[in-house]
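From the shared-data thread, chain only:
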Amino acid sequence: MKKKMLFIIMTIFTLLVGVNNVNAATGSAGMDYSSCIAFADGFKIISNAQGSYEYKYCYRASCQGGTYTKANMTAINGFQCQNGNGTPYRQVTSDGCSKYTGTCNTVNQAYCTKVEYVDCNRNADGSKFTSATQGTTTQGVVVPPTTKTPTTVRPTTKVPANTTTKNPNTQKTTFPTIPIEQPTTKPTTAVVTNNTNIKKITVNDTDIKYKSTKDSYTIKLLYDIQDVDVKVELEDETSTVLVTGNTGMPNEDHEIKIVVTAVNGDKKEVTLKVKRYTNLSNDCTLANIYSEDYNIDFSKNTYSYKLKLKKSVSSIDFEVVPTEETSTFSIEGNEKLKNNSVIKIDVRAEDGTTCEYSIKIKKSSNTWKYILAIVLLVSVLVASSVLLYRYLKKSKGKYKYE
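Structure, as tokens:
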């Protein structure tokens, strides 16, 4: 009865201590990376003297695809009960990360903390923990089993009180020693790496073509764009990445910092230099191609023309008028014009878009004059021949009668 009462008193005391400890640490939201990591616990062995502990976590909350996702920044850490309890009683007592749950509409990320009360003297269902069990995995860390020395079961003969042994010379009966085998589990440890390598960086889903030999990149953004979505793909999933300066950006030159931290603490930093520009025009059309000497039936959406010139003309004078004043143009081929020559007008818009207009030259020639002269000459020759023939024929008949 006394032992039962003592157990009840100790249980109540443990619960009271646990309740007092619950309020000792509080989870927070909207923290920076350094404060979040400083708040979080590393690997913790909860001793038999402690019995319970408030384990503290650090999470990174990101808004991606309209939904919050949370990544445990202390995933390689964890806790272990010294008394061998692999499934202790656990209860979240303060969750600053509850703010980042469900849908979201802002592309950003933040850090938050959470506190969990752990009682090694109780099982997960709240019942009292009585004996250590084989090793189990807690918070990503495999807890090695407790090794016990094999014991020997040795049955003995119990002599009742107030009795007399009839034969004092009777020897004590003994049995062979039977060892009790204990289960063994090969302990594993978390791998500590120094891998800070980056595979890919995108800004608003645009690949910046990251190279491991380059740690500074320039990106161009329109004025009034204050937030961009920066995604970093790492080689080692156990490493963490922190992006700063990609939200609330000013309308001027700016820098976005990307810091990758490996498990062993090694860091790599990449800088994105933001350059601002106005909304550039992409209109590369012409408003007119005008010549005082020649009629060009121009239309801004017609890019090919034909023009007849005299054979003696080697170049023409015309005026080019871009639709946008910010556009530029160049003229090629307006020298030593021949039949079938092509004059090209290349127009470049402010954003680099190009349009090409062309004028194909058709030259007049004197070929028809030569053809006409030949026709006249042939006609004269034919007429002369006919007249000569008739004259000779008439003359021949006349001399015959004489």
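Residues 15-23, 132-170 have pLDDT under 50 and may be disordered.
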